[in-house]
Amino acid sequence: MKSFIKHLIITLIIFSSIQNLYAASETDNLALIDKAGKQRMLSQKIAKAYFFYTQGIRPDKSSKQLSESIKEFNQNYNLLKRSIKDSNIQNMLLFVEMSKDELLPLSKATYNKDNGSIMLDYSETLLEASQDIVSRMVGKAKTKHDKLVNLSGRQRMLTQRIAKYYIAYQAGFKDHNTVTQLKNAMKEFEKAHAILAKEKTNTPAINKELNKIAKLWNVVNKFYTDVKRGGLPVIVLSTTDKMMTSMNRVTSLYVDLLSKKSS
User: Fold this and answer.
1) Are 89 and 136 in contact (CB under 8 A)?
2) Which residue ranges in the chain fall short of pLDDT 70?
3) How many domains does the chain have?
4) What DSSP letter does each residue of 189-236 carry, written as one string?
5) Domain coverage including residue 92
6) Residue 149 near residue 251, CB atoms below 8 Å
7) Structural domain contains residue 88
8) What is the pLDDT of residues 219-234, one digit of tens each?
């Protein structure tokens, strides 16, 4: 009998250890997806801040955003490179490294249309690469938790993408593609927000932030649509940053909530 009890206790300890290990793994994975998702946002924020700064719009704020965004992108890159073992993701990270290393000298160069065009190209390249990394991470996990963190995290990126294309248009990129990309980003943001607002696992804190974003969006989205008229860059800068801050809170709340559900 004593032997049976001893084996039972050992079995329970092992089972508990496996459960704790799985919970820790799930939590770490959600946190990594959050970091990888931030890279998407930062790819757009860097370019947005670059255009605002070089156009002389809130140069104090935009200069600080530019330097801090580049620093955070590099820090996140180093964390992802250390933490992810998947060979395909590692190869993509090598590509990201080559691209990001071109950003620093470009961000400090005197503005002209050619440099602006290169900055737009790099922001698109880094976004595509970062999206591929997130998609691979979510695809490997295939859980609702990861998909929610991915979706809410992508909203952060879209706020910065909207502002990027708005200010790029004012900086001289007055072509059909600029307007189309801005409007597509707005449509994606609205669609994803509707999905998140209906999510049944939302806490009151999450719903509070989502409601705050909805109210602000209903007031200011027309300003973004009216990009050809221009004249509202400071409003665009401040409102998109407010929405990004709220979506960052929402994403962190999802990570915390879903980590607890996994434990």
Assistant:
1) yes
2) 1-27, 140-145, 261-263
3) 1
4) HHHHHHHHHT-TT--HHHHHHHHHHHHHHHHHHHHHHTTTT---HHHH
5) 38-262
6) yes
7) yes
8) 999 999 999 998 899 9
